[in-house]
Protein 1
Amino acid sequence: MSKSILWILVTILIVSFFGGCSRPNPEKRARELKRKQQQTARLPQKQKISTTDERIPVEVMPVKRGDISKYLLLSSNLETEVMADVYSRIQGIVDSIFKEEGQYVKKGDVMLTLEAKEYELAEQKARVEYEQQLRNFQRLQKMHEKKLLSDEEYEKAKYQLKAVEIAWNEAKLKLDFTKVRAPINGRVGQRLAKIGERIQPTDKLFSVVDNSQVIAVVYVPEKNMNEVKIGQKAYVTSDYFKDRKFDGWIKRISPVVDPSSGTFKVTVGVRNRGSKLRPGMFVNVHIVLDTHKNVILVPKNAVVYENENMYAYVVRDSVARKIRLHTGYEDNEKVEVLQGIEEDEPIIVVGQAGMKDQTPVRIINVRENKLANH
C-alpha cells in the first residue's frame, strides 16, 4: 500500500473520532436549560431586594407632649449675694496663716493669728488690777455694812471696781482679737496677708464669698415692665455647664427706668446647688413669662427651614411625609406644634436634610424622647 493511501485512511479515522465526541449530549443540555429557568425565576426576588436597599435610612424620635415656656432671654455676669472682706481689729505682726484661697471656712473659724505676747501681758496686768480692786472692795463693803464707811465712799469703791473690770474685759477682748476669724460661711476668695507682715486695722487680709447665694443682675426693657414681678420663675444656663439649668427667681425689681437705655434693673436669685456656679461667670438668664402645658413638642433638630417656613418629616407607612409646622412657643431645644402632627408619631431627626415629600424610608434607629420632661 502506498504511503499516500495510508495517510488518507488515518485522516478519515481522526475526523470520525472527534466528530463523534462533539455531538450534543441530551442530558447535559437538559441540565443547562433547568439552570437557566431557575435563574429566570429568581430575577423578581433579586429586583425586590434591590428596591428595599434603595430606601433612605433615617433615625426617628416619637413625638411627645410636655410643657414649654415663653421667656425673656438676657445676659449677665454672676455676682455673690453674700461677701465679706476680712480685717484685723488690732494692729500687730502676722504670726500664722491657717486658710488659703479656695478653702471653705465656717463663721468663727480662725484664719490668721497675730503675735500675742504683748496682748497676753496686758491681759495679765488688767486681771491683777481687777483682783486687787475686788479684794479692796470686799473689805470696804464689810465696813459699809457695819456703818463704818459712808455711802458716798462705798459707791466710789463700787465704780472703781467696775472700771477695772471693764479694763480687764477690754484686755481679754484684744487678746482674742489676735485670732482673726471668718465673719461668714464661704470660700476664701483672696488671701492678701503675709507671715511676718505688720498690719493695721485698715489692712484687708482676706475676702470670703458665699457661692451658695449668687445673683444675676439684668436690665429688662421697659416694654416688659408689666410682665415681670417679684418671685417669678427664671433659670440660668452657662456654656461651661452644657445641658444644665440652674433654677432661679426674681428677687428684686428696681422701680426706676434708666432714660438713657430704656431699661430697669432686675435682680435674679440663683439656686446654686453644689456651688457649681462661681461669681464672675457669664450666664444666660431666662425669665419665664408664660407656660403652655401638655402640648405637642417637636425637637429642634427635626425642623427643616424653607422660605421662612418650618417643616418636619414624619414616617407613615414607610414613607416620609412633609408637614408644615404651625407653631406656638419655642426654645433652644423644642417647638410647640399646634396642628398636623400627633402624639407618638415617629418624626425624622437624622436623614431629613434634602429629603422630598413621599420619599420611601427605612427606620434604622428610634431615639428616646427626653424633651417632654424638660
Note: Residues 17-24, 43-52 have pLDDT under 50 and may be disordered.
Protein 2
Amino acid sequence: MTPILVFDLETVPDVDGLRRLRPEWRELPDDEVAQRAFDARRERVGSDFLQHHLQRIVTIGCAFRDTQGFRVRCLGTRDDPEPRLIQDFFRLIERYTPQLVSWNGGGFDLPVLHYRALVHGVNAGRYWDLGEDDRDFRWNNYISRYHMRHTDLMDVLAMYQPRASAPLDDIARLAGFPGKLGMDGSQVWSAYQAGQIDAIRAYCETDVVNTYLVYRRFERMRGALSDEAYQQDLALVRAALAALPDSHWREYLDAWPVA
C-alpha cells in the first residue's frame, strides 16, 4: 500500500519576525508584540488571524499508516527549533513519498510550511517535484490543486467551495469519532504562553487521528476501501492508541464508543 501521512500544524505568532518587520516593536515583550499585531490585523480586515507568513510552527502532528501498522506522534521534541521540525516533515516525504492528507491543509498548513521552509532554508525537493525528476509527478503531485497526492479533505468534500466548508470537529463527531479534546486552535497561543507545550502536542495528535479516521471513511465512501477493510483499519487504530501510555489517548478512546 502507498503510505498515508496525515498532518496538522499548531502555530503561534512569529514575534521575532514581527520585530524585524516592525523595528519600533523591538523592545516590547512577546505578548505585547503579538497583541499589537492582532490589533492591527483586526483593524485592517476585521479578524485578528495573522497572515500565513507571520505564523511560527510549534508542533507538527503526524499519523502514519503503512504495511507496518499505524503510528501517531508529533515530530521531534517539545524543545526542537522550528527549522528542524519542518525539515523532519519534508524528510518523511523524501523517504516515503506518502499520500498526504489534511483538513484545510491547502488553505493553511501547507502555505505556512512553504513560507517557513523558505525563511529557514529548508530542503524539500521531493515535495516540490512537478515532473522534472519523476515523470509520474507531472500528472499527480503535491502542489497542483486538483491532484490527489495531497488530499485536503475539507476542500474535496466541499467541492472547493469555501461557503460549503465544514469544521473537522463537526464532521468527526457526526461520523461517530471523538472530535477535538482539551482545546481548539484559538487557545494555542495562550497555552503556549503558559508553557503548556505538551498539551498543545497532545491536542495536535488527536486532531490528526480525527482526520485519519474521517479520511478512511471517505475512502470507503468513494469505493477505495471495502467495508471489511475499513472496520479492520478502525480496529488497528484503536489497538495502536490503546498501547500508547499518554493520558490523552485514554480520554480519546473513552470518547470513541465501539459501534
Note: The chain has one domain: 4-253.
Protein 3
Amino acid sequence: MENIVSLDNKKVINWTKLQDKKYRDQNLKFLIEGEHLLLEALKNHVVEEIIVTDEKVYDENIPHYNVPEKIMKKLSSLKTPPKVIAICQKLEEGLLTEKIILLDGIQNPGNLGTIIRSALAFNFKTIVLGNNTVDIYNEKVIRATEGMIFNVNVLKRNLKDFIYELKQKEYVIVGTDVKKGIDPKKTKNTKIALIVGNEGQGLDNELNNLCDKLVNIKMNSACESLNVGVAASILMYELGD
C-alpha cells in the first residue's frame, strides 16, 4: 500500500478533477464514497483504485493508497469525509431489457437516484437518460442509488430518435397524462418503455405524441401531484411483472 501525504501529489490532483463532469466524461472514470458503495462496486468489478485513511485493504488485486484526512476532505463531497473513496470505471452499456424507463429532463439528483433504485426493484433494468437529464455520475445521484447504480443498464440517448428504434423492436411506449391516461394495470405488455418527464415541466410534447399509450395514477383529489421519483416508482410497480 502506497502512502500519499501531499495535496500536490499528481494522483491527488487527478482524483480531485473527477469532481468535474467534463473530466469524468473524458477519462471514463468517477468517484464513489463510503464502504457500502465500494462493496457494491467491487461485486461488479469496476473499481480501479481505492483510497483509505485507516490502511484497510479491500481487495489485494486493486491498488490501495493510504492518505491523511486533509486529502480525504479534498476528495469528498460530504461534510464528514468517509474512511474510503474509490475510483471506478464508467459503466458499460448492456443489452436492452424487456422493461425500460426513459427519463426526459430529470434534474434533481435525489429523484434520479430514487428512480434507479425503484427501476431495479421492479425489473425496469434498462434506464435511458435523455440529453438534458442530470449526470448519473453526479455524487448526489450515486449516493441516492445506495449502490444500485452498479446493477442496472444505463444508456444515454436522444430520446426522440431512440423511441423510433424501440418501436421497431416492438416496444410499447407508455407516457403519462393526468386527464386522458388509463389505469396502468390495463397496460400489460411483455416489452414496455415507460417515459417520465421533468419535475416542473413534465413530459416534452413531442415525446408525449410518440407514446402508444398514456396512463395515470388514481389518487385523492386533494393531492395535486406526486414527486416524479414517487410517481415513476408507482408506475414501474404497476407495469412490471
Note: The chain has a mean pLDDT of 90.
Protein 4
Amino acid sequence: MDPTKVHLDTDLGGDIDDLCALALLLKWPNVEITGITSVLEDQGKRAGYTRYAMALAGRREVPVAAGADVRLGCYRLREYALPLEERYWPERVAPAPGPLDAALDLLQQSLERGAILVGVGPFTNLSLLERRSPGVLRHATLYLMGGSITPAPPGFPAWDYEMDFNVQADCRSAKHVLESADPDRITLVPIEVTAQTALRRAHLAALRRAGPLGQLLARQSEAFAQDERFAEHYGRRYAGLPPDIINFQHDPLTCAVALGWDGVAVEPLPLALALEDGWLRLRTHDRGRRMRVVTRIDSAKFNTFWLDTVARDPTSPH
C-alpha cells in the first residue's frame, strides 16, 4: 500500500503540543512526511528546533523550511517569546533561517505530490502561497487546527474565539484561506474539541522509555508543567479533565483526524466568517459555506491512543 503523504505546517517551539504532534506523525504507520514548514517564525528558530527533533528521530532526510516570520507584520502581536532554550532543549539549537519563498516552494511541491496539508499553527504560509499561486488551495486537502464554533460540553473549559490562537494570531490570513480553499476539502478541528484532550503526568514514564524524541518530550513536559500549571488551572477545576493534565493535545488530535483516527465525529456545518474588531468570528449560519468540522471526540480513547502510538517500540508489529 502506498504511504499517506502529509505536509506539516507548524509553529513548533512554543506550546509543546506541536512537538507531540510531530512525534505522532513519525510513529504513525505508513506515513510519508513530504515536508515541514514553520510559521510564526523567529529568524529560523522554529525551523531549527524542528530539524533538531527530526535528527533525534533519525529523520534528517525530511525537508524543513522556515516560513512566515513575525517581522512580516501580519500577526496580532509584534513578538511571540519562545520558552527559555536551556530549560526546554538539552543543548543550544542552531536556528535554520531561509528565504520565505523556499518554504512556499516546499509547501507547493507537497501539494503537487498529493500530500494532505495539516496546519497546526497560524494560517499565514497557506495564505501567502495562495496569493503567490492563486487557486492552489482549491485542489488541496486541508486539516486545520483552529476555530471556535460550538459551545464546549460540560466539564471542559468554556473558551471563546479569543482563545483560538491559530485563527486569531493572523485572522486575515485565516479568513483568506477559509474563503479560498474548497470547503468540501477543509476539516476544522476547533478548540472546544481539542480542549477535551490531555497530555498527562502519568504519560511521562512511558515517554522517557521511548527513545531520544520521547525523552525530549518528557523534558519539555516537565518544564511546561512548571511554567503553565495546567493541573492547577484546569485539572482541578474541570471534571472532564484529568487532575494531572500537563497540556492540551490540540495539534496531535488534528494530525490523528487527518490520518483517519476514528474516535471523532465530523459534521458539515454552514459557517459564516466575519472580521469584527480585529477578530475573526466563525458562526453557524444557514447561508454559510459548509465545511467539515470535528464536533465530538472520545477523549479518553485519544489520550491512550496518542501515548500508545508515540511510546510504541518501533521494532514491534503495528
Note: The mean pLDDT is 95.
